[in-house]
Amino acid sequence: MKILPTTPDHYPGIATLYNSVDPELHLSASDFIEGDRLRDPKFKTQRWVAIEKDEVIGAGYFTQSNWFAHPQKFMIWVGVHPKHQKGGIGSALYETIMQGLQQFDPLAIRTRTTEDRPQSIRFLKKRSFQEVIRDVPSELNVQTFDPTHFAGLEDRFRDNGIEIKTLSELENDPERNQKLYDLDWEISLSVPGDLAAGIGRRGLEKYVEYAITGPSALPEGFFVATKGEEFIGLSHLLLSEKNVSLYQGLTGVKPQYRHQGIGLAMKIRAIAYAQSSGYVLIKAENDAKNKPMLAMNEKIGYVRKPALITFEKQWQLTEK
Ligand SMILES: CC(C)(COP(=O)(O)OP(=O)(O)OC[C@H]1O[C@@H](n2cnc3c(N)ncnc32)[C@H](O)[C@@H]1OP(=O)(O)O)[C@@H](O)C(=O)NCCC(=O)NCCS
To answer: To which CATH superfamily is domain 2-106 assigned?
Structure first.
């Protein structure tokens, strides 16, 4: 077994490895190529593969993200093919990542796993990682969703001049992208839970690529609540797996317009879009402390999956 820095030639093998570790992922080499293209160049990233007889049997990386925004903070991940687990490959990959990080004088590192993977949790706890955030993933079966339960929602606020529009319907507003960028940031900072404290703001261009023009963006599945010229709420879907699943991106309403059914109405519009486009699932992920959104998702019929736990290791306390 050799551990090597990854090149794009390894991507098909890495995709197969990821899918063996989590069969729900359905990744392909192009997802990794796309990930490289979309990543902000300011984020330090390095991947490694564990290779045996030309087969990728393990992989690991460190990277940085807007969700844990600091030049000395990193996200890491290690995965080993189920057939090759418990043979020291995960530990070897982990050590390689930690050595690779030394040069950046890290302050803290994070990684995520689900609550139903006790062996991963043991691996992390043994290495001084502690739980810092718990997220609730959930899924909605779009095909069996019955929209008639939610009919007439928009009548509640239409008389107040509030309308829900798609991105295309707002095409003539020259300020559209800037307004969405600003609203996304305002809402992101107000999301209950532990993530908002550590997030950084991506540039306008990166936001537009992520949510509006990029390969995962769906302009007809992006809904904006407007009052005159003002954008007061948004809810957008992103492509997860073509023709199969979508991912629920940010949903939010400016604080002064909450509790009028606007958030729910935008999400119901998004589900109608998914239904008419033939998708099967919408996946969502919310901080376990975000009671309003969890209550809304439950009302809609989202079914909870095992919790996703973010673990953090304070590097300086343990390594220096
Ligand atoms: C979550 C959020 C979008 C709700 O928007 P809203 O327009 O106020 O919500 P609605 O009026 O449409 O509420 C619909 C349902 O959601 C649930 N809900 C909304 N706010 C709630 C609250 N404060 N407490 C408990 N349940 C709440 C209820 O089930 C409600 O139905 P009900 O009115 O019959 O009780 C809004 O609170 C928000 O912008 N929060 C910050 C952003 C965020 O956390 N987004 C989620 C991360 S993606």
So the answer is: Gcn5-related N-acetyltransferase (GNAT) (3.40.630.30)
Residue 193 CA to ligand 1 center (angstroms) comes to 14
Going by alpha carbons, the residue nearest to atom 37 of ligand 1 is 292
CB of 190 closer than 6 A to ligand 1?
A: yes
Supply the mean pLDDT for the chain. 95
CA–CA dist 44, 31 (Å, integer)? 19
Is residue 155 pLDDT above 80, yes or no? Answer: yes
Q: Is the domain 138-304 a CATH 3.40.50.1100 member?
A: no
SS (H, E, C) 260-291: CCHHHHHHHHHHHHHHHCCCCEEEEEEECCCH
260 ligand 1 Cβ < 6 A: yes
pLDDT of residue 290: 97
Residue 293 CA, ligand 1 centroid: distance in Å: 5
Question: What pLDDT digit, counting tens, does each position of 13-39 carry?
Answer: 999 999 999 998 889 999 999 899 889
CA 256/CA 259 separation, integer angstroms: 9
The closest residue, in CA terms, to atom 13 on ligand 1 is 261
Answer whether 2-106 and 138-304 agree in fold: yes
- For 282-317, how does the pLDDT look when each residue is reduced to its tens digit (9 = 90+)? 999 999 999 999 999 999 999 999 999 999 999 865
